[in-house]
Protein 1
Amino acid sequence: MTLTIADEIRERALAELAGAGSRAELDEWAIRYLGRERGELSRLLKTIPTLAPAERKPFGESINAIKKALEAAQGVRAAEVRSQELGQRLLEDRVDVTLPARGTEPGHEHLVYRARDEMIETFRLLGFDVAEGPELEDEWHNFSALNTPEDHPSRDAQDTFYLQGGGLLRTQTSSVQIRYMEHHQPPIRIVAPGRVYRPDTITPRHYPLFHQIEGLLVDENVTFGDLKGTLSAFARRTFGQSRKVRFRPSFFPFTEPSAEMDVECIFCGGSGCRVCSHSGWIEMGGCGMVDPSVLTNVGIDPERYTGFAFGMGIDRTAMIRYQVPDIRLLWENDLRFLRQF
Amino acid sequence: MRIPLEWLAEKFATELDRSAIATALFESGFELESLDWIRPGLETVVTGRILTCESHPNADRLRICSVDVAEARSHGGSSTPKGASAAEADSSLLTIVTAAPNVQAGDIVPVALVGSRLPTGKEIGLGKLRGVESYGMFCSATELGMALEAPGDASRLEAMEVKKAAARGVVLDAAARVRAREDAFEFVLVLPTDTPIGRPIADILELGDCVLEVAITANRGDGLSVTGLARALAAAGLGQLALAGGALGGGSVAGTPLPEVKLNAALEAPDLCPRYTARIVSGLAVGPSPEWMSRRLELAGIRSLNNVIDAMNYVMLDVGQPLHAFDLARIDAATISARRARPLERLTTLDGSVRDLPPDTLVIADARGPLAVAGVMGGLGSSVSAATTSVMVESAYFLPGAIRRSARTLGLNSESSYRFERGVDPEATVEALERACDLLIQVAGGQRLGAAIDVRRQGFPEPLVVPLRPERTDRILGASVSADDQARMLASLGFSEAQAGPDAAASGRSEIYRDARWFTVPGWRRHDVTREIDLIEEIAQRIGYGAILDTLPPLATLPDSRPPVSDRLRELLRGLGFWEVLTNSVVPAASQQSFVSGPDELVKLARPMGDLQVMRASLLPSLLEVARTNLNRGASRALIYDVGRVYVQGESSRTELLQATALAIGAVADGMWKHAPEAYDADFFWAKGVATGVLGALGLVDLEARQEGAVPGLHPGRAASLVLDGLVLVTFGELHPALVEPYDLPTGKRAAVVIFHPDAVAECLARRESRGFVPFSRFPAVERDVAIVLDQGIVAGEVVASARQAGGALLERVRVFDRYAGPQVPAGKVSLALNLRYRAPDRTLTDSEVDPVHAGILDHLCRQHDATLRV
Ligand SMILES: [Zn+2]
């Protein structure tokens, strides 16, 4: 008879458990049926002393079995409820993701500096170190050591900013070549990015200061083929691995042989467009084998060592790559321009 | 240099392949800048695409077209399409009203822009056709100056029609072909659909004369003539030279015998003029040039003046040697000299200006005085005029440096000086003289009178012989070319192999050339080929740069340097929301005055150019300018930085320092959206957050804040530096209120400035690189809060420092978490709330251990700072 009561409690408890929809209801349920003091099963256990001795053991065992079954059912139900509650919470937490972000707007990198950093990174991969030199230069490093004749027009005040009390603002980063070679013996493998100055009137294409990156590699057995290979590798990494590169003869006082490097136009692929003035090619910069007399000027034996040097405009490269039509945009710093990069 | 193609073609015995010229030029070290077709009247006729074509509301036979002429639109017809840049053209779309029955939308046609005067004489004005303005006219082949009768024109257009039909999949029979080409002359010429738009029609149809524009680098004076370029093209394999040929060679006209004239010249400055040749031509008649000569000169960009002067210019363009004709009646030919100008000498030059001749100027003079600035410009007094009947033709060799100096000091440049500066052939002086006389006699009559003179410095020109070690060529180029092939390549350029000769050995040529081969440099290359490396360059060009194999030099070691610390500062600043800007380092002097203690500290330009006056001493003024510009344009705030150099003029030296300067103006937190904090402006403590945040991210913590009194540009009461290991890493604070007005910034707002010193940061990081790991305690800490009341003037940092000092090993950290001044504390006092954390490395601390230490610290603080505990 008592067993029947136990079975009845079990059926009732399981039915109620299925109806418990929250943690609080589950807790209530647990107290009601499984509570140590007042739980229904505990109360039933307390009736054991009133039973005949022979019934006590099987009765106790069956009550414990029911208790275990209820506890297991409680665990299953609790997991169900937790998962329901989590689902509910996730639903309530849902936000409008199109609302603005919290905190400040992100910063931006300037186009010219970005172009510079990208160029440096490529040359680092090619094993080049980064060197710097002064912008406030003297005539020796900017001109004479680079084989520029005394009466060369580039030395005129129309083409060079001179400083009060002597000296000048460097007109090319090539001066860093000289400074570096004065203090280092080969092997030398450097790039020197930096700012250079020329008294040009401001126009969409010209600004009196701009940025160049200069490269220099001097070692035993450096060849013109090495120059071509290095700069081609650079151009392809910058503008695409399948891009064509060409070198054509040119003239610089401090390199011999000298060359101009052109890259297949990145806009028309070589068929001709406005950007490349219908030539299919875009000029990247000048280069050449370091003139033996430049090496002699800095005390490096040109019979033992050979080398190459190159120079490229950073602002120009940035303008071509990002199709900036007017150089003044780079210096104006309108936030609406900066935001794009 | 501009040269007509027909002139160049004349130098070749073989047909000149026009499509190969550009490549041959650049392989020779020249650059073809453009290849233009010139027909007078077609300068402003361009290709345009008809976008829409609708019937005119007021006229049955008219249609209104919208035409895209790309960037070629001219303004008022004055600028040529080639000169019009994209920036000048406000729109590339034109409205054109046409009566042409044969055009439709999509067609590409020749468009005569407003202002054109067509070869037929028809002028194109801005017209109104039945109430609609028309900005140009579509042209037929006839209107372009082509003629049905001209076999070349007709067959060209017929070929074009066949091609157009083929593109539509139609094959024209003979009758249709004739019809199509006749239509092209009668109606508007419709061009193939792949024709580029906005281009001059003369270039597209190759109408008129073809003119090459060749860029010539300063070292290649030999390229400044038709002959010189032909030589280079022939060496590049473009054809067979036939240099003696051409339009020259007309015989002299015999006139009545003339009295003998004495001709004599003295080289008084042989260092500047080592060779002077001249000849007299007499009995000529000054007049207009024959049409072929004036046309070629004009196409080459030189104005035709008269037959005498034109002949001089023609031969100059032809062979590269500048020539000058003096009116024989106005000089004393017996006393010609090439000498330096004497003190106070002056000359009225051809351009009419009276010029004082600086003492070093090379002049051509006779006994009476200077006749010409040698190689630059003749004098007006001895110049050829309509009355001239006899001339002295001069062909001389002046040193490049001498002419460059004259041209610079006098501020005078000419076609002549341009060539002398770059070096003319000193061996071809007489040849040019005789050619000039030939041409002169051909076009102006007259005859040679007496003998030519050829006065030279002893031995001039000495042969120039240069050594070449063929294996050195391979080493420099990374190529493999046999010695004989190298010699052959040089020979094709005019370098003949020579015996070294005893003088080569005597002239100090070292041992290294013992086994070299020697080459004689041709006269026209003496100015840029003087050394072995120059010959190697010639060989490289002959091989072709493209044919030299690309290689990568071996890499034995990796570079030493790391990306500079400034790159990390830049990145961290961007992470905090700053925008990178690019600012000028040459700035107006006025902007820098408050950033240096005196004007002597500024590095100044010798010749300022507008706003470019001095090198900046601070980046802040430029940043303020950028902020102002953007705020004026509607930005609500500016968070900007630039990393660049500042320049300081010391007593005997100048220094350049890298600075990373950041400026924040406006609300750094804008209070929008429900989660955001309240809006607040960038103030001192925000700036300090930027400074410590950036440095902290680099691993630099526990920085000492030092109050700064007078940092230029900063509020004196709200400026500080962060110092570590004695190095000032960053200076920051609020913008000085006095700068608000000059820069037109919003008043009543604070702005933050943070100036990092990358060199010091790098130094600090380098020092810390060697530090090792310091073990930390894994036992729990005990924290105690306390508030003390003390004088307002005592700074928190001092209190923290003395707490540390008294705390001993157990005190791990002291932090100020509140500062209060107000009614709760006596006037002139503040309450500082401190949090002290104690920890031991090896055990859990008990209260009984902490209590005495804590009490000791409080006692010390009270005594040290005259403070009381707040309860
Ligand atoms: Zn292109």
Protein 2
Amino acid sequence: MATAHSRTAARFMIAPAVLLLLAWMIIPLSMTLYFSTLRYNLLMPGMEDFIGFDNYSYFLTDPAFFAALTNTLLLVGGVLLITVIGGILLALLLDQPMFGQGIVRILVIAPFFVMPTVSALVWKNMFMNPVNGLFAFLTKAVGLQPFDFLSHAPLTSIIIMVAWQWLPFATLILLTAMQSLDSEQIEAAEMDGAGAFARFFHIVLPHLTRAITVVVLIQTIFLLSVFAEILVTTNGGPGTASTNITYLVYAQSLLQFDVGSGSAGGIVAVILANIVAIFLMRMIGKNLDI
Amino acid sequence: MGQIKLEKVTKAFGNTQVIPPLDLEIEDGEFVVFVGPSGCGKSTLLRLIAGLEDVTSGDIVIDGTNATALPPARRRLAMVFQSYALYPHMSVKKNIAFPLKMAKMPEDKIEEKVKNAAHILNLTDYLERRPGQLSGGQRQRVAIGRAIVREPAAFLFDEPLSNLDAALRVNMRLEISELHQSLKTTMIYVTHDQVEAMTMADKIVVLRAGNIEQVGSPLDLYRSPNNLFVAGFIGSPKMNFLEGEDAAKHGAHTIGVRPEHLRVIHGATTSSGWTGTVGVIEHLGSDTFMHVHLDGDRGTITVRADGDNPAKVNDKITVEALSEDRIYRFDKGGMAIR
Ligand SMILES: Nc1ncnc2c1ncn2[C@@H]1O[C@H](COP(=O)(O)OP(=O)(O)OP(=O)(O)O)[C@@H](O)[C@H]1O
Ligand SMILES: [Mg+2]
């Protein structure tokens, strides 16, 4: 790749792939952009007019939008917090030599292989159901009133479900990172008089920053678009208490048949994702280079 | 103070006994070198003293107090690891300051001590760098710096020079010896390189399969090895061993002569020496090492001759010991006959 000739050749060779990827992205994006400037309701076909930014102002001034925005950020933030902290603790635990380590590790990974809809339904019907759920059974067993998670704390419930799904991913990445820590470093710290906590905060945690960054970046991408869990459990309700932006776009386009406004919401979601990405890269992106 | 005493210390990993019962005394201020072939338990012994491994039985006494059950940090020992074990995310300064910070020393005192250590070790220009931006020798010095700021009772080194190139190794060897002379702290140094052991040690402990074969000053071991193993291990090139008729003549099962204690006589004579044909010749400039194949298939012996010795490959020569008392005699069990 050193000579000018080989560089030109390389560019020429990767051009088709780049062009294909570009088209793949540009065409849907520009279609969405185009729809977002139309009055486009599926109930009134053939009446599409150009209305400029009206769809955007409807979408952005809709009180549901602010609720959805906060919910999205709370959902992403909450799940990240639980998975990163929980993942570190679990990784610390799994890193200890213990009986049946292999099996325990497989068990820990298992939730990641369960489909989101299935796991959400299991949580909804088997755990959180106020009549038949396991939690209700437990609270009743100690003589308390069962708590109806999905109607009284819908967003928290969804955060718990999603966190349960993503915890294995975080654990796995952090465990691998932890195992790559040179044991002599820990021993050196031990000889230097560092107790267990000091060793964790001064040696282990700094060693994990890169892995944590990777976990946060990858999870954020997926957590911004959580949808299935909401659809099968709360349907965004009660009211808009558990509606995130993704679900709001869906509700606009397919429940209210307003493709124009939905498209505007989609574009807003794209912009939001980019803002989050820029913030993240600013804050933690420097951890990625050596 | 830094007096360390091992009393009947043993170590087993599962069912394999790595260290059989072992007694050893290390005096305050001594430079002790553990030397032995790979896998003989040198590192294990050092880690037992450091407290990084638990002894299976026996006691470790440091400065008169039983330290067997003390955690590593409370034994007042500092260790320099083979891989240096520097903290990669901390600057050189923070690396050196780490043990002091853990000891909750006030900031200004830490600053002063780090500066001092950096000065002694020529690290002043690198204090803000990360370990990844240093050369091997500089990393080594940072590791030593991290050890000396604690003012420990003893330093433990586990093959600290094995990752360095030959020239740097000679340099660092000297620096560590000088450090020992100026600090006068007890040092325990593990190596499998007998040259390092000979040049640095006050006292050498030769280990084989966890057993102490001999303890003594470098010259003691060189002059009067207790057994075949020590005789073969100390000295470079290795001592020549002959068995059978040659040995029987001296009333021993095996005799040994060092290459530097042999004299070359050109041509075949009938004196008391051994005749043979010259094989490979290694010219070092100052010395010439000749590998001589003895007549009658009695083996090969190495001879050190002058740099300007005229012998050529396939010459017939005779070698003989400088004097009778340069011939070491060993019995059937490999023990020295004195
Ligand atoms: N954690 C362990 N579990 C089981 N056996 C071990 C363990 N650590 C060391 N050993 C064994 O103990 C013996 C001594 O090991 P040690 O590391 O002390 O050797 P060494 O003398 O330092 O060798 P080297 O010069 O190669 O570093 C070896 O046979 C090794 O296989
Ligand atoms: Mg070793």
